[in-house]
């Protein structure tokens, strides 16, 4: 086994965090901003790329880290090392309401594909890279689902989801149609593509975008009910405009809509 063998416990219901127990000299890697707390004997170190050791030489490390930039992530990750001679703990938290999913890569044939912002942390030795689409349609119309992350190795990794989580076991040839932002991840055997919704009314007035993703089995897929992009859009739409005016001003009902909803405060 190449990756460090870590133990963990997930706490909470809707705002979860994962507590990882490290044996002496064991290491866990994490995205910047996910750290919550740790024991005094754990040392934090910024590393270039994911520290998996799968890329040899300076050029290989630069290429590996450069690919992370394409997914909107930092060139660097953070490693947490247990320098004590006894077990120590470090915890990482979800950035928004949802669930944390443990991914045992040994059960997924060494590879799991997920949305570019879903990865939370993993045992040292797990490789975090990008999964490029080989089909032009995905690149032109895939939106959030075009460039995805791939997590490879034989250790434990953790991804986070928004809202309620649905786990779908797809039989061979079974197709599931999903909003691109609602995909958390899937096993490497699942075939992923983009499909046009179709219909003039659906395209112009449907409000669901022009395309959705199709997942074809066999394999396992994880679907989230609340993508962060959807949550952010609702927050921005509800926020007051510059100058303190709200989005209700200028509408047919004006502030009456907020009064009826009970949102107007005096």
UniProtKB/TrEMBL annotation:
It comes from the Bacteria. InterPro entries: AIM24, AIM24_sf, Trp_RNA-bd_attenuator-like_dom. Signal peptide: none annotated. This is TIGR00266 family protein. It comes from Flavobacterium sandaracinum.
């Amino acid at each position: 086994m190449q990756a460090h063998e870590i133990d963990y416990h997930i706490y909470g219901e809707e705002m979860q965090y994962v507590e990882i127990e490290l044996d002496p000299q064991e290491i866990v890697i994490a995205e910047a901003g996910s750290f919550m707390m740790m024991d005094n004997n754990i040392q934090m170190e910024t590393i270039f790329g994911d520290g998996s050791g799968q890329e040899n030489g300076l050029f290989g490390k630069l290429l590996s880290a450069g690919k992370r930039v394409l997914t909107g992530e930092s060139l660097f990750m953070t490693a947490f090392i247990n320098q004590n001679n006894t077990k120590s703990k470090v915890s990482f938290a979800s950035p928004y309401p949802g669930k944390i999913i443990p991914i045992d890569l040994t059960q997924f044939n060494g590879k799991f594909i997920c949305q570019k912002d879903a990865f939370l942390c993993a045992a040292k030795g797990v490789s975090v890279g990008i999964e490029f689409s080989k089909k032009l349609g995905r690149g032109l119309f895939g939106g959030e689902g075009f460039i995805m992350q791939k997590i490879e190795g034989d250790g434990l990794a953790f991804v986070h989801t928004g809202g309620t989580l649905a786990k779908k076991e797809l039989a061979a040839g079974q197709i599931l149609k999903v909003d691109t932002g609602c995909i958390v991840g899937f096993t490497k055997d699942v075939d992923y593509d983009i499909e046009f919704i179709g219909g003039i009314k659906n395209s112009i007035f449907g409000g669901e975008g022009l395309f959705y993703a199709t997942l074809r089995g066999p394999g396992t897929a994880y679907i989230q009910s609340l993508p962060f992009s959807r949550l952010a859009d609702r927050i921005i739409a509800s926020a007051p405009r510059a100058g303190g005016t709200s989005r209700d001003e200028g509408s047919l009902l004006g502030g009456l809509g907020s009064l009826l909803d009970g949102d107007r405060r005096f």
